[in-house]
Amino acid sequence: MCALRVPVDDYTMNIAINCCCHLSCTNEGFAVFGFFLKRGIRPDAWTFSTLLNGLVREDRILEAEIFFKKLFKDKICEPDVVMYNTMIKGLCKIGNNVIAIQLLKRIVKHGHIFVFRNITTIVICSISLRRSMVFKMDHSGNC
User: Fold this and answer.
1) Among 7, 24, 100, 136, which has the highest number of CB atoms less than 10 A from its own CB?
2) At what angle do helices 116-140 and 97-109 cross, to 10 degrees?
């Protein structure tokens, strides 16, 4: 972008990271993020949400969880509703609904208004998890 004399600011860098993440190239998104920091551009919640979503889209849920916890623990960025939604979706994706519900409770505890989509995601994942368990039980004869 610099070679093309495109102005590099937080907006253009977030767009570049978002493109990488939507192309399932989250590692490249993190590389752009490194460039982001080298240029002295301060990342915002949108930047971290995009990277988190990229990890979840690529089924790298454990990495997403570690990244999310690091943001929260090290007070790098206060997680917003979008980050919470992304983590809830990722946790449900791997069938970890109990932690997803705990995260939903944390949203309320921190004063965020949760979106109905959070509850819907958890319910849908719970139903599909139960169906897969019933399917396994029916076809294998064992629990």
Assistant:
1) 100
2) 170
